[in-house]
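In response to a reviewer's request, we include the raw inputs and outputs for one of the modeled complexes. The two entities were modeled together in a single run.
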Amino acid sequence: MVSFEHANAGSIKEAVRLLGQQDRTPVAIAGGQDLMTMLKDELVRPGLVVNLKTVPGLTEITYDERKGLSIGALATLTDVEEHPVVRAKYPALAQAAAAVGTPQIRNMGTVGGNLCQRPQCWYFRGDFPCLRRGGDYCSAAVGQNKYHCILGGDPCYIVHPSDLAVPLRAYGASVEIVGPKGKRTVSLDDFFLLPSQDVRRENVLEPGEVVTWVRVPPSDGAKAAFVKFTERGAWDFAVVSVAAVLRKEAGNGKVAGGRIVLGGVAPVPWLAGKANAALTGVEPTDEVLERVADLALEGASPLEHNAYKVPLAKTLVKRALQQALAS
Amino acid sequence: MAKKLVRSVFDFEEGFIETIAEVPEKEPEAWAPERSMRVASKGHPRVDGYARTSGDARYALDIQLPRMAYGRVLRSWIPHGRIRKIDTSEAEKVPGVLGIMTYVNAPKIRWYRDSTLFDPHVRYEGDEVAFVVAETEEALEQALSKIHVEYEELPFVLDAEEAMKPTAPKLFKNGNVRDGKPRIYERGDIQKGFAEADAVVEDTFRTQVVHHAPLEPHVCVVNWEGDRLTIWESTQATFRVQQGIASILKVPLNKVRVINAFMGAGFGSKLGIEKHTVMAALMARQIGRPVKVVTPRKDEFLSMGNRPASVQKLKVGAKKDGTLTAISLWSVGPGGAYRSGSAYLGTPAREMYKCANVRTEEYTVYVNTGPARAMRAPGHVQAFFALDSILDELAEKIGMDPLDFRMANIAEIDQVRKRPYTSKRLKEAYEAGARAIGWYERRNKVPGSGKGPLKRGLGVASQIWGGGGGPPAFATVEINRDGTVVVHSGSQDIGTGTRTIVAQVAAEELGLDLDRVSVVIGDTALCPYGPTSGGSITAASLTPAVQAAAVEARERLKDYAAAVLGVEPERVSYEPGRYYLTEDPSKSVSFEEAARKMGNNMVVTTGARGPNPKGYTINSFGAQFAEVEVDVETGKVRVLKIVAAHDIGRAINPLTVRSQFEGGIIMGMGYALTEERWLDPQVGRQVNPNLHEYKVPTLADIPEIEVIIVSEADTKANTVGGKGIGEPCIIPTAAAIANAVYNAIGVRVKELPITPDRVLRALGKA
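The model returned the following structure tokens for the whole complex.
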């Protein structure tokens, strides 16, 4: 870890000002669950670390029938997991928060940090040639890639590590961002970037910008579920995860529409567009779920060691749908 | 106590050590199985449990000395090359840097037989390149990052089978096969054995590289006071470190003290003399300050050892009635870049099952990766996965239940040395384990026949291991004037509970409660020689020495009891807690009263471990049964239950025995299901040298564990009757899980770890 200056931001305005001082190579810290490891591995070598936790008012979680759910970026994952409204109206989000890391990580880690964390790719984290770190090529393309992406990968093959992003995107959430040029709101559909858009960044945040709030549209009684598949029982990133949010037609058992988002398969939380289209006005029979799962993985092009993610993801899509329907 | 010298042979980590040993002329009376026990054989919590959990215990990692400096090794980041140039000038300018050592300025100290302390020819990612000492850890890190090394990169080889090919890059001029040839063993006539068989199965199994991952990393603190050197070291071999460092630095043994009061596990990775300890001692002498070295977690993975991978080609044959007629094994594994741990693994094939015709051919080869080190039952853990897998295949082929097949092939004698065992309760272990898991009722008669995507199955695997220990091992017992007792032994408690069983054995013989006995352990200046803690030998080697010292101390205190009673000592007898007049037991003095009579005299006795019995082999045996649930749509294997039924002689502390089993089984589960070193094939470097991506099991993964001890004291083995269990407990776990997976899904996974991707591939789904 390199030596750096540390500043407690007293307000978002101050945080933005400090983070805008590019000559000091600033980074923001909130829960520090990702940044601390990045600092220790010297993946970041900041001159200034700006503490956001001292910014007041960003830990709240509120619900309004008209505006929907608002989650302050500094709310912890435990806050989300345990919040009664989140549990009742956005179960997939509560389930995703509960599936992150370990209790210690969830107590420290924040919602903003979870969305903006850097990838876990071992080539990115280790000292290997890596496009995302400015190198000439992606080591994962031909190296050890059993945990890498099967969709949207070229030319870098990370998977997006956030558990929360998966249900949040399925619920149609957006983030509020404050930066040197003021405030803007970005839908999660537009927030994350594919490597083909920008191989150095995972999202649209510009220097000096911070996520302040997550806004989720009002609950319309949709049925939802989040499933996360890991190799061990705790402290493991998703090999594959799926969030399914479904609206049912009144009285006839048909699905009116839905959004399926997959984690662990792509460099962004992956919206299964064709599968979602196929979910409109259908009877959710096994056959239909099977077809939806196939559509969700359409276009998957596995690397040498991760072909297993295709059948695995199909299974999880089906299970997330079944779980949502049964909820 | 009168002692004599004998020639002693004992079983240590896949090999036998022959040595001269001082043993007692007359051993204490053995604790027969029927002896009623007060303190030993009872499940006592660890005597140092509070200290260990509260932070009172001082580990090497906790040692802070005045003016202490910090040292760390700079390691090669390429897998193979020659150092062209090292430029340390930038690093030397970092404020707080006290010294830098490289092959240029370090003394040429021989290492690994074919190398030196700093070798300009680096042979793996993690090889030692420089050693830096600085005032603070911050300055140290800065300096390390400013050393510029220019390498001539050489072609490298990572895979053992590749390394055997004549075209492979050579690590040493004599080639990559260790000793230039395999180890070959033959008995009977293998061809005849296969000809006699009604069924023959041939198959290849592969296992991965795993790491020890001890909670406490490798640590040393070295401190010179004049010409006297004190070393706090996290080690399984306190005396070996003392002897090694003394001989390398040419310091007499009476000037070298090694302290190792508490340590946070080693699993075989802390059996040797560490390069960084020598570097620290050299540098500390040069700068006149104590030096502390804490190995970073990444370096633990790269350089502090591993269980080597294996390729095992097995062919086995049996008659229809279940008679095993032939076993043939060909194996190879990577020993890593230097002569350290080995990849030999043939013992189970030769010794576990009764078979007249056996041939084993084993290779250890050099590759450009971190050197292997002995790891918790080296060889056996790899071997049983393959051997017990193919045994199940053969049982199926002859239409026999796999457990019945094993029971039909219990070896009555040690087939390699052609002599009996001191004790063997393997059949009882099979039977007890089968009952506990419901083997005959619950196992799928047709593998994979369960309904739905979650399929359950049962599997069994066996275990053989040494762990009989032997002399030399010593302990002293001191009785204080208040009747309390101190036991000293230079062995160490590596987390297994040695300190507790030493106290129990002393308290048992002295008739005292456990809290009256304290134990000083792991200090070469205070304690007589105690064995290295490897090969599961500590308990069986050390406790009889403690027992002997305690018996003698009790006899010596009798003189004072007699003085209180006013009679000749010959007329006094002893029972727990008191001495009494033999002809009138109503006249007695307590242990404390007798001790008070000592005044400033002191009873100090030294006990020695008796010899091992001639003409016998001492082994532990056992079986584990696994119940698993496999999700055939995701490939996930969940272990529901492990039953461990073992013959370990006397359980000196059934509670710590249970702890050991839990630890070993969890480690075995990690081996079976999640742990794996990943190397990048292009650059030859490890991609997961951290505890996040190297996946040891978490609490959330741990199944129900039932431990059944089927044995009683083995008094032929030693006077306490215990056999070691630190390693037996891990041996069958992965094999039992693998067989249970087959029973669940009807498809065999022949490569470890059994991760979801491998299961899906085996099922033809990926």
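As requested, we also summarize the result in words. The two ends of chain B are 69 Å apart (CA to CA). Chain B touches chain A at residues 77, 138, 141, 633-636, 673-674, 678-683, 685, 687-689, 692-693, 695, 697-701, 755-757, 760-761, 765-766 (CB under 8 Å).
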